[in-house]
Each structure stands twice: as structure tokens, then as C-alpha cells.
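Q: How would the C-alpha cells look for this protein?
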Amino acid sequence: MKMRRYQDDRDYWRIREFLRQIFRSNDYREFSWQVYRFDYWRWHGVENMGHGRLETDVFLWEKPDGKLGAVLNREAPGSVFLQVDPNYRSGQLEEEMVEAAEKNLTTKSANGRRRLHIWALHDDIQRQQILSKRDYIKGPQADYQRYRDLYEPIPDVELFDGYKIRSLGNEGELPARSWVSWKAFHPYEPDEAYEGWQWYLNIMRAPLYRRDLDLVAVAPDGELAAFSTVWFDDVNRTGAFEPVGTSPAHQRSGLAKAIMHEGLRRLRDMGATRAFVGSWNEATHALYRSAGFENYDLLESWHKELK
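A: Here is the predicted structure in C-alpha cell form.
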């Protein structure tokens, strides 16, 4: 296979179909990214957060007939992912991908040296051996890629009096939706640091975005209290929750669990068979386990400083 850089939107759509195909080949386990995550990085990470550019930070490996065999891409600065078709996976290919990442996708650390994080499943011996041989060290960062099947029961969750769950309203509600997201993910930052709501328009441009799956919990006074955007891939019949959050003023009210159960019911009614969510600390582990996401694959971060 030959490597080349991402060129244009035609590659964007090819990569999306490639991710769908290898997700099926991996028996609907997140050994690679799902389509929703590539979309989310494209429309939120790149457009809103400035985390890279497709033309410089995505690399494709193609067979002579043009078929994709692997894709390398960054997410956050210095954090990269190897998406590999299991039918073409080899140590040589992954060595090439790691070398390309070291050459093109590092970021500078505080001491001025280049650093790189590469993710590997906890039981992926081949990739771990490649990384260890190249002086990578396994760090404490880990992503629990949780999943549950939708044929399992989805219990009702009783809401506190006056709270309601519904789909996000029209564009006039985007400032409120953006504000509750800011409060959930920046609880200790001053309100003056808030940068406005227009970024949410890019979220809505993602191909899988559906407003009927963009769920909010509304407090008795009409304030948005919690939220979750649910992504439905109707080709693979899977769904994912990204992000999930609750405003600090409304936490410990069971809203996040209730909103996820509503999302699970909607996914099931649309024909989805499995749902996914990622957790990274004890609070999110507990929340998602309580919503039925007990199974997981553990993705670990390996890091290295380069000269």
C-alpha cells in the first residue's frame, strides 16, 4: 500500500465509509473510530477548537486498486489514532503509520521537545510491542469504550418534579444549549471566559446530526439543565452518546441517566441494536454503568518525547 495525505472532501466521504466497513469487520467493537467520532472531530475539533486540519493531519494508505487499507489521524494536539482494516493489518503497516505520526503529528511539550500520544487497546500485543520497541511508555490515560445492546431492558427513570426531557428546540435555543454546555464542562472558569454560542452551528453541520436526537433536560423554571447529543448510524444500526453533561446547579438529580435512557429508547425505536459511550474517570464510569453500559474495551495512551 502507498501512503498519501488527505486531499479533499472526496476523501472525507471515503474515510467515513471505510470506518463503517472496518467497524463491521471488527464485530461492532471500537477497535477503530466510528463514523460519528470522525464527524465530531471534523466539525467540532477542527472547526471549533482548532485541533488540526484534514489536509495536514490525515494520512491514507491505499492498495493499487485504490481501496483504503488504513487511515492515520490526529484528534487533540499530539494525540493520534491508527484506523486499520483487520484484513490488511501487519506489523510493517503499523510501523509505517507510527513513523508517519512521529514525522508529522507531534506537538511541543512545555520543555520544548516534541511529544506524541498513540492509543492502543489493552490487549493489542502487536501494537504495544511496536510502541515499546520505539521507546513509548504506557501512561495513566485510558478511555473505557463502553457499549450495551439495545435488546436489553431500558428501565424508566423517574424525574424530579417539574423536570422534562425533550429534543432541542429551533435555532433560538442554541444560546441556551451552548451555555449549559459551558457550565457543565467549565465549572470553575469565570463566566467572562465564555465565547458565545455560534460554534454550535458547526455541530449541526455534521452529517449524522439529528435535532430529534439532540436531547435536553429542562428545569421547572425553563432553564436547560442537562444535555446529550446522540449520534445514530443508520447503516451500521448503532448509536453513540457524545457529549453528556449536566449544569453544576442541577447535578445529583439523576438527569444524565434519565436523558441517556430516553436516548436509548429513541435509538431502539429507530432500529439501532447497540449503543456506545466513552468514560474516563470514576464519576463517568459509575454513571454509564448505571445506564447499562457495563461492557467495555480499554484503550490506553502510550507517549514518547522526541528530539
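The chain has two domains: 2-143+301-306, 164-272.

The chain is about 30% helix and 30% strand.

Upvote if useful.
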